[in-house]
Amino acid sequence: MAAVSQLSYVVGTSSDVPGWKKYATEVLGLEVSRDSEDNLLYVRADDRHHRIGVRAGHDDDVAYVGWDVPSKAALESAAAQLDAAGIAVTTGTPEEAADRRVMEFVHFVCPYSGVRMELVLGHEKVFLPKFRPARDLAGFNMGEAGMGHVVLYAEDILGAAEFYSRVLGFGVSDFAHIPKVGPFAVFLHCNARHHSLAFMHIPGAPRKIQHVMFETVTMDDVGHSYDLCLDRGITSTSTGRHHNDHVFSFYFQNPSGWHFEYGWGPRTVDPETWTAENYLLGPGFAWGHDGLMKMV
Ligand SMILES: [Fe+2]
User: Fold this and answer.
1) Which fold has domain 6-121?
2) What is the DSSP string of 232-286?
């Protein structure tokens, strides 16, 4: 069983927080929390205080990724497992916990992507006011499956798969290979969502994060969002269906240069019975997503 129960939040750093504020409502269709400040934007997508955060800064990359742990005992046990694996684990300060809107957390640097991972207890829920999409969207499937997934760059994707499965109990959903090249990506689950975390090897990737995916409630939400992004010239791929999670989706760029994926209808996994799959990337296996193999 995974030490974490779901992806709770992704926070980035940006040189353009006002641009992100506009983007969050106009493009993502999300809600900017009233708790936001000039140098820290909190973006709501469901009943959590925030799912996306943007801090003022200059590197336009991911700052940290938050993962729910189900209990204090689970938090301590995960910290002990990391420590035993030789990973430095630090307890977040009360100020940092208040900033994340969690009761407490520990953090470590992912040895494969260099991204700060935060294991959090008690990420704040906001029951009222209810989340209201900023444009005509039906909303997002999150709940127990978490906010979606995050895909990070890593050179050693097989090492990352070993680390997250052996130390933190993630399950490997599948490996993607490029014919005649070798392993290219690994997709990991911590609940019924096909993948909450993935690592992709793209030599010379310009940052640590590639994309964050949100699962829309309706297929039309993907279509309308695609039209809107086409109008603005910010699509990163065409629409398509993925080989592995079967999601119908497309990718689009944010003001920091990394990407979001809005997807509908993914298949789920049963973490108790799932067997890791392996598949080849290439033409003829699925359709669409033109531009994906060039997306960094
Ligand atoms: Fe994705």
Assistant:
1) 2,3-Dihydroxybiphenyl 1,2-Dioxygenase; domain 1 (3.10.180)
2) HT-BSS--EE-TTT--EEEEEE-TTS-EEEEEE---B--TTT---EEEE-STTSS
Tell me the H-state helices in 68-190: 72-84, 94-100, 157-166
- Region for 187 from its dihedrals, namely left if φ exceeds 0, alpha if ψ lies in -120 to 50, beta otherwise: beta
In this prediction, residues 245-267 reach a mean pLDDT of 98
CA of 111 to the centre of ligand 1 (A): 21
Average pLDDT over residues 160-165: 98
Query: 287: CA distance to ligand 1 center in Å?
Result: 15
Residues near 270 by beta carbon (within 8 Å), at least 6 away in sequence = 192
How far does residue 212's CA lie from ligand 1's centre (Å)? Answer: 7
Give distance in angstroms: CA of 150 to centre of ligand 1. Answer: 7
Q: Tell me, what DSSP letter sits at residue 125? A: B
Q: Domain 143-294 classified CATH 3.40.50.920?
A: no
Query: What's the pLDDT score for residue 210?
Result: 98
Query: What's at 102, amino acid-wise?
Result: V
Q: Ligand 1 centroid to 201 CA: how many Å? A: 14
Ligand 1 centroid – CA 261 distance (Å): 6
